[in-house]
Amino acid sequence: MSAGEKAKAKTEQAEGKVKEAAGRAVGNDRLAAEGQAEKSTGDAREAKEKTKDAFKH
């Protein structure tokens, strides 16, 4: 997994978790949904990179 893509995935996951938690804490469903979507994007990016790495070897 390239370091840049891995870092980007982890950043998206972390930011998504924070947004989701903040949205739920203040009762803002839109913010919580945005956070969940961002976290999912990070998860997908990480899975894509892991798949690429699996086929390299």
What is this structure, in a nutshell?
By secondary structure, the chain is mostly helical. The chain has two helices and no strands.
- Pairing-aware structural class of the strands and helices? mainly alpha
Helix content: over 70%
Q: How many helical elements? A: 2
Strand-residue fraction? under 5%
Mean pLDDT equals 92
Overall morphology: elongated
- Describe the main β-sheet briefly: none
Determine the N-to-C terminus distance: 12 Å
Number of E-type strands: 0
Q: Rg from C-alpha positions? A: 13 Å
The parts where pLDDT drops under 50 for at least 5 residues are none
Helix/strand order, N-terminal first: HH
Could you explain how this protein is built, in words?
- The protein has two helices and no strands.
- By secondary structure, the protein is an all-alpha fold.
- It starts with a helix and ends with a helix.
- The mean pLDDT is 92.
Key words describing this protein structure:
57 residues; elongated; 91% helix; mainly alpha
Topology:
Elements lengths: L2 H24 L2 H28 L1
Helix pairs in contact: 1-2
